[in-house]
Amino acid sequence: MKKFFVTLTLCIVFFSSRADEGMWLPLLLGKQVYADMVKRGLKLTAEQLYSINKASIKDAIVIFGGGCTGEIVSNEGLIFTNHHCGYAAITDASSVEHNYLKDGFWAYNKSQEIPAKGLSVQFLLRIEDVTHRIDSALNGLSGTERAQKQSEVIADINTLYSDPAKNIEARVSPLFKNNQFLVFVYQRYTDIRLVGAPPESVGKFGGDTDNWEWPRHTGDFSVFRVYASAEGKPADYNASNIPLKPKYFLPVSIKGFKDGDYAMIFGYPGSTNRYETSYGIKLATEINNPSLVGLRDVRLKAMFREMKNDPAVKLQLASSYASIANYWKFYDGETKQLLKYHIYEQKQQDEQKFMQWAKGKPGFDNIFSEWPKVYDAWRPYAKQRVYLFEGILGSPLAKFASTLMKLENDIVKQGADALVVKNDIEAATAARIKFLADENKISDQQILAATCEMFYNDIDKNQHPIGFYEGIKSAFGDLKDPETFKKWSIAVFSNTLIFDDAKWLAFTKNPDAVVLQNDPAYSYAGAFIKNYISKYEPLYRQFVVKNDELGRLYLKGIIQMNPGKKMYPDATFTMRVSYGNIKSYSPRDAVLYEYYTTMKGVMEKYIPGDYEFDLPAKLVDLVKKKDFGQYIDKKANDLVVCFITNNDITGGNSGSPVIDGTGNLIGLAFDGNYEALSHKLAFDKNLNRTICVDVRYVLWCIDKLGGAGNLIKELKLVKQ
Fold first, then answer.
1. Could you report the per-residue pLDDT of 615-662, keeping only the tens digit for each?
2. Long-range contacts of 273-277, Cβ-Cβ distance < 8 Å, separation of 24 or more
3. Residues 361, 366, 367, 371: what is their CA dihedral angle, to the nearest 10 degrees?
4. Angle formed at CA 217 by CA 212 and CA 219, multiple of 5 degrees
5. Of the candidates 188, 249, 175, which has an alpha carbon nearest to the alpha carbon of residue 25?
6. Torsion of CA 602, 608, 609, 614, to 10 degrees
7. Is residue 367 over pLDDT 80?
8. Closest Cα to residue 72, out of 218, 269, 252?
9. How far is 669 from 296, CA to CA, in rounded Å?
10. What DSSP state is assigned to residue 633?
11. What confidence score (pLDDT) does residue 414 get?
């Protein structure tokens, strides 16, 4: 028990005191950080934020799906999250005849709510520190041996803290680059139902043009409900299930706010790497990011050409397109901001200071003599890896074909187990059905040709799969001619058994590795993956192990170098709280951005019939009548749509509640601003802003636009 207390004390010391920077573990806020929160405007006790013995705000915050945050807002399990977080569930529930993505959806009673198959939410039960246990097992180990042992010990702890019978799952999260370990224990609920969503023209207003930009006018929200068994336990979908009675739900404030008011965000930020080295910054800005952006740009253009001309194709590709587009723009912006603010040079200065301190200190003095060698060894192959995963496997056909490699391996094994092969066939057939439902051949055929050509032109010829491009040349023509790759792609699509039901049936009845190996789609994906696995994956693994080991020692040294300095851990998709203020900002000379936007701005951007800036006719009519009801902002004499804070968030925080000083929901976080897209690697305390949809706009859309007053009645509204 004494050792546990010491670990907590150390963790508290690590945190940073800068109010608007940092994603804090609510369990370990510490007196100084909590006092700073109070100074900024918090009126709640620390136990009201996080407690395992009493209901607290943490009990209203859920992991929504696989990568977003949601919040419980009623005593009947109602969930608010972002529209883009519910996007897949909304599209899955839609058809051309009932296009809820285009037209919106509202359940006016619980019987109309639509089961969201495959969707789940997770509630955090508790957090425990297991650092001592893991460190004891790793004592004296380094490199690959340490990494393997760490994985084994973490797996054992996860099993120990989990209880599958109760849907309880435990996941150890390494913090401070494997210098600290906490286990997070969750309970998963799997009966989730779609309750409401605005039309996409509201939920995604501004599209890719406005993405990562302020001013913003997007109603980025959707509404779901979590159900449980009659006993209140997690249960799969059943018509007899009842709405969950949560331990805690957030009151919803329609009082409004002003510039400088306290703002707190709870949620699950995905990942940051604020302690990255100059070598990592250089690799990102020169190779990884530009490669990813270029490859995604090609994929997006091919998809968009088909989506804009056919509502059915738009519905088919909407979720995939949105996912690809989001981080296409992010990584482009990240690179520009890292270069603009000279983050590489700043990191070098920090490293010089460390090297001066580390002289003569065993374990630390050789870190920066080893690290350049690690990056030099991997750098020649880094681009090839991005081109494989973002280019070659950016084609949905190639990606699906690559999943058949296990089947091929199991078929060719000596003494192949017939049951294993049978199970592989069944799994592949089920996956093929889903693939075909999502596949748009016209755009994918273009993607296949373009990305294969890009790999040929941009990647060192010595790293190409042996004989592959020579085969294309002999059959289809000059490799310098784009038409060659287009003809090859047509042939792949025309001859693969993946699209041919008769060929697929014949193959599954008599699984033959040669048939699979000769299939043009499979042979294409297989050539590149086998080339990577046999030659370059071992190099990548060596790079990761060595980089992680040096990173752990570097951060350990930084902590020793700065005794008493408060530092925060990187985001790891674990519950965090950030705090700051609603705040306007000036991104450049003579420009001042207000802290909120209104319906006036929505109407200024409105372009009837436009792909990104159209609006529902009913919304336009309501705005013309100024029918804003109780949701109007009296100061603006308008409906506030979005606002900004200086909170520290990242991907995974999408859908996170923005909470005022007394614990009321005032908005949903959904984006960041372009001027600070370096935030995964470097936080900008002056320009960083979190973009949020005002909860009053959310409620207005539910009530006035959607007519779902039944949902408003569920909420605990906080008024003047």
1. 999 999 999 999 999 999 999 999 999 999 999 999 999 999 999 999
2. 273/570, 273/680, 273/681, 274/570, 274/680, 274/681, 274/682, 274/683, 275/177, 275/551, 275/554, 275/555, 275/558, 275/570, 276/347, 276/681, 277/347, 277/351, 277/371, 277/551, 277/554
3. 170
4. 100
5. 175
6. 10
7. yes
8. 252
9. 25
10. B
11. 65
d(CA 446, CA 489): 8
Side chain identity at residue 356, one-letter code: Q
Residue 693 φ/ψ region, left for φ over 0, alpha for ψ in the -120 to 50 degree band, beta for the rest: beta
Give 512's contacts (C-beta < 8 A, 6+ positions apart): 411
Strand, helix or coil for residue 679: coil
Q: Average of pLDDT values for 537-545?
A: 97
Give me the residue label for tokens 């501004």. 206
Sorted by sequence, the CB contacts under 8 Å of residue 538 that are 6+ apart come out as: none
3-state DSSP call for residue 648? Answer: coil
How does residue 415 score in pLDDT terms, banded at 50, 70 and 90?
Answer: low
Residue 20: CB atoms within 10 Å: 21
Distance CA 222, CA 87 (A): 9
DSSP H helices in 564-616 = 599-605
Instruction: Tell me the per-residue pLDDT of 23-53, one tens digit each, with 9 for 90 and over.
Output: 999 988 888 889 999 999 999 999 999 999 9
**Residue bearing tokens 């913090």:** 175
DSSP-assigned letters across all residues of 432-471 = HHHHHHH--HHHHHHHHHHHHHHHHHHS-GGGSPTTHHHH
CA distances from 497 to 42, 518, 520 (A): 62, 10, 9
Residues 604 and 569 sit within 8 Å (Cβ to Cβ): no
Rounded to whole angstroms, the Cα distance separating 102 from 314 reads: 10
Report whether 681 contacts 350 (CB < 8 A). Answer: no
Query: Do residues 536 and 450 lie in contact, with contact meaning Cβ atoms separated by under 8 Å?
Result: no
22, 39 contact by CB (below 8 A): no
Residue 514 burial by Cβ neighbours in a 10 Å radius (0-12, 13-18, 19+): exposed
CA distance 73 to 70: 10
Return mean pLDDT, the chain.
Answer: 94
Could you tell me which of 124, 181, 184 has the C-alpha nearest to residue 151? 181
pLDDT digits (tens, 9 = 90+) for 326-347: 888 899 999 999 999 999 999 9
| pLDDT the model gives residue 591 | 93
Q: In whole angstroms, what separates CA 706 from the centre of its chain?
A: 29
Mean pLDDT of all residues in 147-164: 98
The verdict on pTM exceeding 0.85 is yes
Mean pLDDT calculated for residue range 372-389: 98
Strands (DSSP E) contained in 104-243 are 105-106, 114-115, 121-129, 168-175, 180-189, 191-197, 222-228, 242-243
Q: Which residues are tagged catalytic?
A: 84, 220, 654
Q: What share of the chain has pLDDT > 70, as a percent?
A: 97
Contact call for residues 131 and 181 (beta carbons, < 8 A): yes
Report the run of H or E that residue 669 belongs to, with start and end.
strand 665-672
What's the gap between Cα 172 and its chain centre?
19
Q: Is 86 helix (H, G, I), strand (E, B) or coil?
A: coil
**pLDDT(606) > 70:** yes
